[in-house]
Amino acid sequence: xxxxxxxxxxxxxxxxxxxxxxxxxxxxxxxxxxxxxxxxxxxxxxxxxxxxxxxxxxxxxxxxxxxxxxxxxxxxxxxxxxxxxxxxxxxxxxxxxxxxxxxxxxxxxxxxxxxxxxxxxxxxxxxxxxxxxxxxxxxxxxxxxxxxxxxxxxxxxxxxxxxxxxxxxxxxxxxxxxxxxxxxxxxxxxxxxxxxxxxxxxxxxxxxxxxxxxx
Length: 215
Prior knowledge:
The chain is α+β, with helices and mostly antiparallel strands and 215 residues long. It has a single domain (3-213), classed as Maf protein (Alpha-Beta Complex). It is 27% helix and 28% strand. The protein contains five helices and eight strands; from the N terminus they run E-E-E-H-E-H-E-H-E-E-E-H-H. Strands 1, 2, 3, 4, 5, 6, 7 and 8 form an eight-stranded mixed beta sheet that branches. Strand 2 (12-19) and strand 3 (24-29) form a beta hairpin. Helix 4 (192-198) packs across helix 5. The two termini are 19 Å apart.
C-alpha cells in the first residue's frame, strides 16, 4: 500500500461510493459514537449521505491496538478496507495533557475505565491535576483515508488548557473541562458552529472535505 501523509494543520470509518441515481456520495461512518456522527455530518454538509456500520451489517468492534493516534486511525481504516473491500476513512482523537506526560493520549475514551464514561474520564483528569499549575493540553485528531489502496492522513490540533472544574453543558467527552487558547469559554460553552471553526476535528474534517472535492 502506498502511503501519502497529508498534514493540513487531527473509532470511526467511512465507506465512500457514488449513488448513480442522484450522484450523491454515500459515507458509512463506522463508529458507535453518535456525537461524532452528528458533528462530522454538520461539518461535511449535505453533499454526503451518511450511513452507519449497522446499515452495512458490521457489528464487530474495530481494533485499535496501536501506540499512537495516527496508528489507530490507520489500523481502523485498513480493517474496514480489507474486510469490506470499500474505500473508507477512519478517525481517532486523543487529549494530550502536558503535566501528565501526554496522557490520556490513545486511552482518551477509556481513561476512567473500560466503561468509557465521560464523567469518569473527566473526574480522573481533574483529580490528577488537582493543585497542578501547568494545565496546558491539546486535542489531536487524525483522519485516515484509503482510496483504491492509497492511504492519506489529515491532522488537526486544538491547543488549550484544562479547566479547574466543569463549565458548560454542551458538546461531549472532555468538552466541559477543555478551554481552547484565545478563548474564555470551554468547548461545552460554545455553539456547534463556533466549536467546529476552531476544533481539532473541525480542522481535520475541513481539509478532508477539500481533498474529497478535488477527486
